[in-house]
From TrEMBL:
<protein>
    <submittedName>
        <fullName>Membrane protein</fullName>
    </submittedName>
</protein>
Length: 569
């Protein structure tokens, strides 16, 4: 019967109400029985009321009312009214807390609280409020959602006021069943690992509060309504209302042009991304580019998270780049990801990089100093995605960074046509970060940086970093700039038209150097404006940009139009 009583009480806080709005009122009672309405509002969803009341109590306790608590809760289901009566309690600047011996073992487990010091010194109202909050949060996150922390046996001695700390844990509760509503295309095992909520684990209020924001980080799932919890004698049953969202995409352009020999060649940029086809959150990318005559690029990548229901996942990618008849570049990477929560992964990887000089390199002045190289890299990295809405974010952070070192073998040919072998240690560092700052409901500032560093005693021209174009430096042709080290900074203003569309104006500023042949450096910049327009079947984007390099003036005739269309399915 005791657990039933607890469940009945908690249902006031956790039941999610549909359709008609509830009126929630918070009333504070003073020591002289004076009552004051401090908050009254309407809501369809009462799941956040409990958290709101806890914050109000914490605020009152910090203002020299450490004994404040919930005096009474009235719930009128017919008229949809919910009234909290909060007792402010007497005014104290300091208070001595008495702790029962049987509760000291529990307090020892709570981070940030010293159970010996707690019972030996007078605490201010702020310190007492923090102690109560830490105790309650620890219990709620470790299997005791019905826990209460309050004071009894209050001694109102004006010289040394004190109170007995009382902790009621209530029954231990575990996650019993997770119900997926809405027929989402996702495996329950993925949801359990991703949310950190596994059937049979102890209940955690913190993990429950994080559900909505975590689901928002998945492009292939949407929250149809707020998660719900039903408590029973068997444990907590979690109801998730999820809706599938088109996330796989295909985009690109394809063209035909004649070459110098009069033959027809294909050019284009085609990208295919397949998401969650196996209902396990996996991702596969396929990209083919041929933007210049005789030059082609192929990229294949795969990422499979939460292998065998663990926090570990696997990833791999393959890259092939052929620069006319000058050189052929091949890269292959295999790695392991570990999910550390809050949209973050750490990774460890091995990557092979090879570049083979082809017969036409000597006839191309830009790549005449190329050399055949082989490098085995070992590295670590971190990935973090924490934004409010991935397709068109207004606030949050995206971050990906990798650092690796490798042993490179080069095979230069000397004047007597003898192939030599030279060994060297090389280092690479990559950083891609973007931060979204909201300025009201429709205005957002995007601040971003993209940096790539390659460090070696000698860098050959076929090892250069290629950048320029839509994703690396707007205002320039794709991969028209070459560097051994570069960093690009972006400042972008966005005006949101709707959830998936925005107008934008931007400024890109790069700084780079090239040590592969004759040393030089530059600070190219680009600026412009554009539109990203989202529809039910895809997103269309177009931008116009002007660029300048080596201190040359901006020429309107050199403006670049970058456009694309991403179709979702």
């Amino acid at each position: 019967m005791k657990i039933i009583a607890y469940i009945a009480f908690l249902s006031i806080h956790f039941t999610v109400i549909s359709q008609k709005k509830w009126n929630v009122t918070l009333i504070v009672t003073d020591t002289d029985s004076t009552r004051e309405v401090i908050k009254s509002y309407a809501t369809k969803d009462t799941s956040g009321v409990r958290d709101y009341v806890a914050k109000k109590l914490f605020s009152i306790r910090k203002k020299n009312h450490p004994l404040a608590g919930i005096e009474q809760v009235e719930r009128d289901t017919i008229n949809k009214k919910l009234i909290y009566y909060l007792y402010k309690g007497p005014l104290f600047e300091k208070l001595t807390i008495r702790v029962l011996s049987e509760q000291k073992q529990l307090i020892k487990r709570v981070p940030g609280i010293n159970e010996r010091l707690l019972a030996q010194v007078e605490l201010s109202s702020v310190e007492i409020a923090e102690v109560q909050l830490k105790l309650l949060q620890y219990l709620e996150n470790n299997g005791y959602p019905f826990a209460k922390v309050y004071f009894t046996d209050i001694q109102l001695d004006t010289h040394s006021p004190s109170a007995q700390l009382k902790i009621e844990t209530g029954p231990e509760v575990k996650w019993h069943t997770i119900h997926l509503k809405g027929d989402p295309k996702i495996r329950k095992s993925f949801i359990q690992t991703y949310l950190g909520i596994r059937e049979g684990d102890l209940y955690s209020e913190k993990l429950f509060r994080q559900i909505t924001s975590k689901i928002d980080q998945l492009v292939y799932l949407n929250n149809e309504q707020t998660p719900q919890i039903a408590f029973s004698s068997e444990g907590a049953e979690l109801y998730l209302y999820l809706k599938n969202s088109p996330s796989s995409s295909a985009n690109g352009i394809l063209g035909i042009q004649p070459n110098e020999a009069g033959k027809v060649t294909f050019t284009g940029d085609i990208q295919l991304r397949l998401m969650n086809l196996l209902k396990s959150g996996e991702q596969m990318d396929l990209s083919w580019k041929s933007l210049q005559a005789g030059t082609q690029q192929l990229d294949i990548g795969i990422n499979y998270p939460f292998l065998f229901k663990s926090n570990f996942g696997v990833e791999g990618n393959f890259h092939l780049y052929k620069r006319d008849s000058s050189f052929l570049e091949i890269q292959a990477q295999a790695g392991i990801r570990y999910y550390i929560g809050k949209g973050s992964f750490i990774r460890g990887f091995y990557r092979y990089e090879g570049s083979n000089v082809l017969s036409g390199a000597d006839n191309n002045p830009n790549f005449s100093t190329s050399e055949t190289v082989r490098t085995n890299f070992y590295g670590i990295g971190i990935i973090r995605k924490k934004v409010d809405y991935l397709p068109n974010p207004t606030r949050g952070l995206n971050l990906e960074s990798n650092i690796s070192f490798g042993m490179r073998k080069a095979f230069p040919i000397d004047s007597t046509d003898i192939v030599r072998q030279t060994n060297a240690t090389t280092y690479k560092f990559d950083l891609a970060i973007e931060y979204f700052i909201p300025l009201g409901k429709r205005h957002t500032i995007r601040v971003a940086n993209l940096s790539r560093f390659y460090i070696a005693d000698t860098i050959y021209v076929n090892e250069q970093i290629r950048f320029g174009g839509l994703n690396t430096q707007r205002g320039f042709d794709e991969e028209s700039l070459f560097a051994t080290t570069f960093s690009r900074f972006t400042l972008e203003y966005r005006f949101l038209l709707d959830k998936n569309s925005h107008l934008f104006a931007f400024f890109d500023q790069s700084i780079y150097e090239n040590t592969s042949r004759n040393y030089y450096k530059d600070t190219p910049s680009g600026f412009g404006a554009g539109l990203a327009f989202g529809t039910k079947v895809g997103t269309f984007s177009i931008s116009y940009a002007l660029g300048s390099q080596f201190g040359n003036p901006i020429q309107l005739r050199d403006g670049k139009i970058h456009f694309g269309y991403v179709a979702f399915f």
